[in-house]
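Hi W., the flavin-adenine dinucleotide complex you wanted:
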Amino acid sequence: MHSFEFVRPENAAAAIDLAGQAKTAQQGADVRFVAGGTTLIDLMKLDVETPGRLLDISRLPFDKIEDMPDGGLKIGATVTNGALANHARVQRDYSVLSQALLSGASGQLRNMATTGGNLLQRTRCVYFRDTAMPCNKREPGTGCPAMTGSNRTLAILGTSDHCIATNPSDMCVGMAALEAVIHVQGPRGVRTIPISEFHLLPGDTPHRENVLEPGDLITHVTLPPPKKRSRHVYLKLRDRASYEFALASSAVVMTLTSGNISYVRVALGGVGTKPWRSPEAEAALVGKRASASAFRQAAEAALHNARPQSENKFKIELAKRCLVHALQTAANA
Ligand SMILES: Cc1cc2nc3c(=O)[nH]c(=O)nc-3n(C[C@H](O)[C@H](O)[C@H](O)COP(=O)(O)OP(=O)(O)OC[C@H]3O[C@@H](n4cnc5c(N)ncnc54)[C@H](O)[C@@H]3O)c2cc1C
Ligand code: SF4
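Structure:
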């Protein structure tokens, strides 16, 4: 691992000031915040990330989960994935998020991994993680060997001719179905970003993964007030039962009124280049009777634009069945 300076800023303003001196907040950043370190230190050991300065934000006061006056929930950026998954209100009112978090990584990792860090975790594409290989995301313009190489676990939605990397997060998929809002403090002040606008599609700039600029510190995430009597399901399909990333996953928040779907939010994981909210599936469901045929139609709509590669065509049917099963489970709950 290359050498770097480790700094522990006294407060958020000092952290933002130091990080604001970076050239970029995207791939190749020379200054990085570090929280749990479970993504960043991993990538530094592989020389995929080579920041000269690490700013430890783990002791800044962003470790609380608080009720908001409007009935929503405020989640500090350094709240661990374990604490969030096991929080009483998250389990009661935002169960899809708790289920998503508990399906991820391992107990030990969840005790280190943070909310802010999970929002920014990087793809598991093997070429991205191997500096001996070309990769447009790591080194723009070098090419994408995954197109003709190992792409079984990679994305089928939101891909481009330059990158087909999957966003591996479970937490973000649960948050997408809950319409979470990300709060950022940076050199230009404070701003809020709906999670649907936070991650970027790869297009011809796959090294740009989100809307953050140098110095931008995620301070917290808010969830809107919970939908009354909503049913929550997160279903994750993967190669082994634990400690594995999703091949396909579905997050569903649904409300039934006299057997009809009166409210529904659908997000997919393991198949998109970003956490994949599906307005197409939602439109196919809302107002319909909760039935196997409505669920299948929603799944067809959600995967309509899927673009598979040589090894991952199976994901189309897998993701459809995953969503149908999640919708059925929610309806039966
Ligand atoms: C073996 C293994 C298995 C895993 N399995 C899963 C899984 O099944 N599902 C899943 O969802 N995840 C999984 N993960 C990923 C894990 O959830 C993430 O590594 C973790 O959430 C990242 O959080 P962190 O606090 O450790 O981030 P760090 O490594 O500290 O930081 C990650 C990035 O976020 C930036 N950052 C952190 N906090 C902030 C902030 N507040 N503001 C701005 N930037 C910030 C850092 O600069 C860095 O670029 C796995 C990880 C490992 C190592
Ligand atoms: S899919 Fe993206 S991350 Fe993977 S090799 Fe291609 S450009 Fe790199």
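The chain has a mean pLDDT of 97.

W.
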